[in-house]
Amino acid sequence: MTSRQEIRVAAVMERIAAPNRWEAWKFRLVDVVPDEGVFGTAPRRLVDDGKVSRWLFPGFAIALYPDECKGYYLNLTSGRPSWFVSWVVEETDPTLPTLTGVGVSYVEADRRMASEEHVETVPLASELCEWLRLFTNAHYRPETRRKVRAMSFLSPEERERHLATLAPAAASEPPAPAPVQARAADKAEADGEAGQRARNAALREMFHSDPHFRQSDGLDVADDEVHEVEGSAVGRQRKILLARTLGLLDDELLEQELPPADPPPARRGG
User: Fold this and answer.
1) Can you give the pTM of this predicted structure?
2) CA gap 120, 31 in Å, rounded
3) Interval 172-206: pLDDT, tens
4) Exposed, middle or buried: residue 52 (CB in 10 Å: 0-12, 13-18, 19+)?
5) 99 forms bridges with which residues in the sheet?
6) How far is CA 26 from the centre of its chain?
7) Interior CA angle at 129 toward 128 and 130, to 5°?
């Protein structure tokens, strides 16, 4: 088997005129078919009803390369092996797309998408899946991480050479702080947090124990006063008015008169 195999194919594209108010043309991949050399080299129109037309783009050579086997492998193991067809729409002639590639490499398709090309897929025929699988099995070499031998298994000469290669990299890095300095900084931070906690605890104790901070200014409302207001006629008025505003009352309740308001309770002094 040679390291490079090639077949020729043609892509069938569909063009839709004025698919919406924002686009003049829309293009869609329909199929990839074998090209036996009878289609010529220029795009040809197959059908056209004035709204939807189909065009054949011939002359694409599909070659397999060993260094693209990772892309073939990803395509075959994706669960849906596919053709990848990419195109761009030129500003000089937006009526037809310019096809930039037809291939079977997942990695190549990803590169074209990163270049802002349109990429669509159609299923790869079973016989072509086998053709691609045989080539991939023959040439694909998965990347493996190189094992690093432990220093204890190296000879003194090899150990010195290894340390010499690491010395320039270590010299370029900024020196790490001394462990003693790091421990001193951690201790200072811990002491600062402990001091802050002690001050907060002392303030809480002062506010809760000192009578000076527990005197009422006459503006506070006690809990029992809140319950008295809520259970009074004034509280019922507030609830009915709020329910009417929110539309939570039925017609019968809407027609009811508001209860007379009780005089507000005398505020208790501090």
Assistant:
1) 0.53
2) 10
3) 655 555 554 555 566 667 777 777 888 888 777 77
4) middle
5) 87
6) 27
7) 90
